[in-house]
Structures are given as structure tokens and as C-alpha cells.
Request: fold
Amino acid sequence: MSEPARPGIWTWAVLGGASLWILACSPAQYLGRQHDDILFVIAAQALSYGDYALFTSPGSPPLVNVLPGLPLLLQPVVWLAGDWTPAYQIFSALLMAACPWAAWLWLRRRLDPAAALLAASVFATSPWVLSQAGTVMPEAPYTLLTALLLLALERPGTPGAPWLLLLLSQVRPAGLSLLPAAAARLLARKRLREAVLTLAPALAGLLLWSAWRWRAGQGYGAAHPFPVALADILFYLSAWGGCFLPEAWAGGKLALLLGLGLAGLAAAGLARAWRRSPWEPAAVMLVCAVLMHALWGGRHERHLIPLLPWLLWAAAEASGRRASVCLAILLACQLGFHATRRLGGSAWSKPELAATYSWLRSSRGPADILASPLYVRDGFYASRPSVPLPDAASSEELARLLSGRKVKLVLWQDSLDLPGAARLSDRGLFKPVYENEAEQARVYEVLPVR
Amino acid sequence: MRQKLESGLVDLRWLLVLGVIALFAFHWATVARTAVDVPYWDEWEALRPEALPNGLTWSWLTARHTDNRMLLTNLQIWVLYKAGGWNVALQQVLNFGLFGLLLAGLGLWARRNVEGLGPGTIAFFLAFTLSPLLYESHSMGGQSCFHLSLLFFMLAVLSLLQDDLPPRRLAAGIAFAWLSMNSHASGLSFCGALVLCFSLFKLSRLLGTNDPSLRRMHVMHLAAALAVVGLGVWLWSRGYQRHPDYPDMAWPYGLAFWRFYANLVSLGFGMDQLSMTLGLLCVAAAAAPVSLVFARKGPAVGVPFWRVSTMIVGILTCLAVIAAARAGLGLDWSKTSRYFEFSVMLVPLSAMAWSMALREARSRRLALGLLAAFCLLGFANNWDFSVYSLIASHRRAGLACLAEAMRGGPDLCKEVYPWPLGDKLERAKALKLSFTRGPRR
Reply:
């Protein structure tokens, strides 16, 4: 590991520019577009109050699917801003803008100054990163904290690593992949006590969380490894390759090939890093995270944001003295094809059902319960209590389930491309009361079940 | 240059002290200007037949009002009655002076005993106690019970917690503890915490010496304090029955207790919003330096830190008891003005504790800076003194209503008492109380 370079004027200029670019693209999506983001805001307010439950839904069900890490990090925003939702997006934008700096702080200890700066810049201008700029999602704080954790692990005796690990494991489930990263080197050196002490807070946190979920009647699902793994691998490789190609080619075979090439380079770099320093925390983290994402059912491009700095590091390791050149080419491609997409807003900047929400707010009673697939988002913008649209085999079953929960309205959005629209076709059970063709949205009134 | 800078800083510190004194004077003047001579709510209980109308009796002095025995407040009412017909406005003005005495005592003690805390810093943190958030206590004469309970608790701590404890000091400390208990129910919580901390203090001194005579002395001190204070608690609780209108107790194994408690503590740091997490942060800000020092030094902790810790533990215990007793009324009650008097004391006490807990000057400055910033943020919107004018206008309306009642009109004056006054007003007229004598402020 080389002596870290001190930040010079170019470092400040480039990283400062990268952060400003991220801020300029914020917010890349309106609050609620990803559904999870509005859930995190509600969870933060619920946590502040002292009752970790979805208070916007009748019965206030416990938030068993929302890890408390990000809501905990959002507490200062709740204390200062309360219900003023732009504050949450501003805070998230600042966190994402700090990520290139955190990545650079770690990269500068391993790569030459130019390569470290370029890798941080490739990260900052990645379409994945820019598409999540200012969104209240856990990827930005997770990336930041991962960099801090890896820095702490590399300096023995630095307090805080166990607590960072606890926080990371509570921010995203992917934090589990950091446990082997934190303990592997210690175990390899037979420092068992230190390994246990490092892992103890995180394991205790996970145990408490699981116990609380179990008490609330929620277990964990299982994935089917092989079919899921292949689909996930292809998805992520294609997504990574697509970052350096024009948008029109992003989902195609060329993107997959490029992704494969980059992954191969990263694998070679990892092997090189391993030979130089076995059980290096960053290498273990990368391997475990890749395995975890390969087996995970949920597949989103943003899941690779926290891995990107380390994937770039691994690729740079394999490139050796040509690392700067390779990174510069990647940066040029990325900037050229994607960087300006998010500037000045996009289709994601405003709620796509704005008119529908407005109709709901003005035409229906404030206590009318609304059901929809993205119920938290829709309930938030329609200012109505909301519940999820239940799974039902038939219209009758759906109507019965909805009546049992005293649901008055169902909001259906065609553009979500979800199955089940046919269940709402029975006019004896679901009366269409509103339709907006431009927004591809329909609102049905739930009629009493005969 | 350095000398000029340092002398400039010294001037700034004393400027801060003067500023806080000016703030105190302004607040006192505001209370004096807006005080209205009319009993309000609980103060009318002094006109029960067995109270003031019956003269100065031991049974009245030690009588219970809801959960509280208010010995010295009742004595104060009697003295003011003798002096001038119990002018309630004057009582409020005097009470503010009493409050000032409490703050001055705390400040002077901190100046002499807390290392690394200059006069400007002490004054800065004491300034928050002068927020008009405590309007309820400053606009009611009967609230002297709160000030007295706190004052005697502080005096008891300063008397009892010291290495050299002659019998005089021991007796004085125990007497102060008794007075605290018999000024307001909060004194009971304070004494409970005091007894606990005094026991631990004596234990630490016992363990720290091999001299048999010293050990005997420590044991005797402990036994005496436990016995006498224990007797006081027993006497206090004789005949106690919880008011039937009070909600069920909220115990610490329930979430309702912690939500209320956290919000109660955060009120002291100026936080108006309901947030359990923010409240727990405030609890941590107060409790962390105590835990840190005792974990680090164990029984070798010095007397000044024992005193600050005991006061912090006492306040936190008092707030916990309030939370247990009042959580059932609803979370909004956690932001009741009169409870602010207890929780705001955590601000200067935390500053003292952090200053003593951190050895390095840089760490100390950082911790105090963060605490200062936190408090400034919390108190940013808590300096509206117009609340006193609003209260005064209500009281004057109540006074006008009472004047009408005394002329034969209806005796329900909700501005000053929620129920028909009935005989209480008659007794007030019979006693020729100050407010019955005609148009006054």
C-alpha cells in the first residue's frame, strides 16, 4: 500500500466538480418514485416518534421490511425539518456528493494519484449514481460508510469499525457481505477474540432486528439460487457495460460483452490484490457482495453503486501501469454518452400521476382508504390512508379482501406493467370513477360485495 | 498580538456574564411588569378552611396538595398575608428572585469547582434557564415549591457529598434533604437519587481506605443519612393516596414511558417537537459524561464530579417519576412548561460534567461547542416574552370577573379557577386578601 497522496489543486477541482455535478442532477427522481424512498421518510418519522410502524396505513402495521439504519441516519433531518420533504432529498444529495471523496480517500492509498482521481470521477459520473442523486435511498450512505469502514479496518486499533459494521448491516441487507470482510483477515491471523468483538455489535443488531420481525409475524423468504444467479449476473454485467455505451445500446449484447470484459478485468485485479495481500477486506467484501447480489431475488442497477468504487479499483489493479489510460477512456465514454441526461430534470422529476392525485385529493373524502400496488407513494401524494393491493385470484376474492379492510378506492397504473388488471374489470364489484389516458391511470370505487 | 487577543477574549467572557445578568434583569422586570395580584388555579387551595383561614398551623404547613407537601410555600403565603394581605403579584416577583438565587448558587459553585469552565461559558449555559419556556412557574406565586425543592436538593448535595463531613454538615445536608422533600413531591425523587449516590460515594470512600476509624466514620455517616432520610420518606408517604383522576402509572418496561421521558428531557434542551430519538440523544448528552468518568476512574472519582453526577442523576430520576405518573395523560403533556424547570438544569449540569470528563482542552472545547450549538438550535424559537402579556390579560379578565362575583355576580371565573369559587371567595373577602381590596394590577 503506497503512501496516500495529499490532495492537490486538481484533486480539489475534479472532486469538487464531481460533487457539484451530482448536486446539479439532484433530485434525479421525485420522492416516492421508487416507493422505498417514501417508505424511508415515513420510517424516519415513525422512528423519531418512537413507534416503528407505517402510520399512513390503517392499523399502522410494523415496518418489518424497512431496516432502521437509514431512518436512523435521517433523524437529524426529521428533527430539523419535520414534514418538509425536500430536506430529505437535500440531505441525500449531500451524502451522494460526498461519496466520490470517500471513494478517493480509499483509492489514493492503492492507486497512483491520477488513477485514484479518475476512478472516483468514473464513479461520480456513473449513470447509476446520477440516477440516484438526491433520492432518499440507502445506496449513498452505504457507499460512504463502506469506505469509512474499509479505512478503519486497515488501521488496526482504530475504534469504530464494529459500530460502522453495525450501522452498515442495518442500512442495507447487503451489509451482511461486510461481515466476512471485517473478520476474514483477523480469523486468518488467528485473532479470534478481536474478530468476535468486531462482529458482535452487528450480529447483535441483526439478531434484535430478526427477533422484532419474528415477533411481528414476519419471517425471511428463500431464493432459488441457480436460476436467480444466472439472471442476476447477466443483468448486472449488462448494466455495467451499458454505462460506457450510448443509451440505445445499453441493454444489448455489446453491453453484456463489455460488462463481461470489465468483470474479467476486475476478477484479474482481485486475484492480483489477493496475491499481494491475502484476505484484504476490500477484496473479501467485493467477492461476498458479488455472490450475494448474484443470489438475491431483487434486481436493481442501484445495487451496484456501493460496489462501483471497488470494482473500478479491481479493474485498475489488473490494468497495472495502463490503469489511468483505461479509466480515462471509461470516463470519456461515460461522460459523453450519459452524464448530461439527468441535468435539468427528466421524466422522473415529477409524479407521473400528478393529475390523478389532484383529483383524489379534491373529489374524495379524506378518510377514504386507497389501495394500489405502490400504495405508500400513492397514499402520500393523494393524502389518503393507503393499503397494498392484495394478491387475489379473482375479482370476487379481491373485492372481498378490499371490503374487509374498508378500502373505498383502487388506483391502477397501467405503466407499471403489473399483472392483475383483469381483476378490476368486473363492473359489479369495481366501478370506474376516474380515468386519465395521458397518465395511464384509473381509479375504481370498491362496491359492496353482494 | 497574542496578549491583545487573550485580553479581548477575557473581555468577551465577562461581557457574556454581563449579558446573562442583563437577561435575568430583563426577565425579572417582565415578570414584575406583568404579574397580576390574583390567585390562580392551585393557589386557591390556600383558601380551604383548614389552610390560611385557620392561621399558621403545623397541619396546614405539612398538608398535602395532590402529591405535594409544600411546607415553605405555605409559610411564604402566610408571611405575605401578614405583611400585606398576600399580594400574589409580589409573590411572583419574589419567586423569580428565588429562582435567580438558585442559578447564582449553581453558577458560583461551578466557577469554583469545575476545571476548564470559565465564567463566560458558565453564564452562556445558564442563560438557557432564563428562557420564557418556564412562563408557567414564573407567572404563579405557588410555584416557589419547584424552586425550593431544587434549591434544597442542590444544597443537600453540596453539604453531604464531601470527604470531610463534620456532624454539622451532615445535619445540614439531611435537613436540606428534608426541606426538599417537603417543598414539592419532586424532592422525593431528588432524595432517592441523593441517598443512592451518597451510599455509592461512601462505599467508594470505604473501599479507598484501610483506616478503621475512617471506615467507621463513613459507615456512621451513611447509616445516619439513610435512617433520617428514610424516616422522612416514611413520614411523607403516611396517608398518601394517589388522586383518583390521575391516569395509571406508565412503567419503564413500556414504550409509553420512554416516549414521554425522552420528550420531557428534550424539553430542557429547548426541543419543542415530539421526537423520542431526539429525546434519547438529550438523555445521552446528560448521562454520557457521568458514565464515562465512572467507567474510567471507578471509586477514585473526585468530590466535585460526584456532586455534579448526583445532581444529574437526581434530575433524571425526577423526570422519570414524572414520566411514569403523567405519560397516561398523553404525549403533549411532556412539553408542559413547569417541567422545563427540572429538565433545563441538565443544560448547565451537562456542560459542567463534560468539562470535567474530558481531560484534553481540545476535546473539552469540541464537546462544549457541540453542546452549545445543540442548545442554540433548540432554543432558537424559545425567546418570546410576549407570553407574559397574554397571561396578564387573562388574569386581569379573571380579576374583573372576581370583582363582579364579589358584587353578587356568578362566581365562576374560568380565567383563574376552573370551578365555581363558592366559599373560597367568601373566605378571601373575610381575610381581606390583597386582591379583594379593589382595582389593582
